[in-house]
Design brief:
This protein is an alpha+beta fold. The chain has five helices and three strands. The chain has a three-stranded antiparallel beta sheet with strand order 1-2-3. Strand 2 and strand 3 form a beta hairpin. The longest helix is centred in the last third of the chain and has 47 residues. About 5% of the residues are buried.
Length: about 150
């Protein structure tokens, strides 16, 4: 008599369960840590006076360029992305610096994402193949036992 349970017994082993718990615990820490860091950044920026480009229209006077090491530490606008553009607010006629995202940086992030997805595809394909082989082995073993019992 066979069980109706669809979870294989190999998944219920303590070592496998511990690895699953460790993996999901690390994922949770990563997600919640990122959420906490983003909350700290937003509260730090809210305490400052709001820049003019949030409240009025502006014109970009200098295109998006990378900040050097000194500017990254001294300007808040450089700290977010590492790139900054100079803008001129139209109503107040103030020159300010605004954080921006570079096309080169976006392309680099895109290719990193593509590489990660390719790696995950290969890993999960290998897992599927190994699982299919083990299931085929179990099926052939079951057929062999049924033939031997005749």
């Amino acid at each position: 008599m066979e069980s109706d349970c669809r979870i294989p017994m190999a998944c219920c082993r303590p070592r496998v369960l511990a690895l699953h718990a460790l993996f999901w615990g690390l994922v949770s820490l990563r997600v919640f840590g990122a959420a906490l860091l983003s909350e700290e950044k937003t509260t730090a920026t809210k305490s400052l006076a709001s820049p003019c480009w949030l409240e009025e229209e502006f014109v970009v006077t200098a295109e998006c360029s990378q900040c050097n090491a000194f500017l990254s530490k001294s300007w808040a606008a450089c700290g977010l992305t590492g790139y900054v553009e100079r803008i001129n607010c139209t109503k107040s006629n103030r020159d300010e610096y605004k954080s921006c995202r570079s096309a080169l940086m976006e392309e680099h992030l895109f290719w990193k994402f593509e590489a990660a997805m390719l790696a995950l595809t290969v890993i999960f394909a290998m897992i599927v193949v190994s699982r299919q082989r083990s299931l085929d082995r179990l099926a052939s073993e079951k057929v062999r036992r049924q033939i031997e019992s005749i």
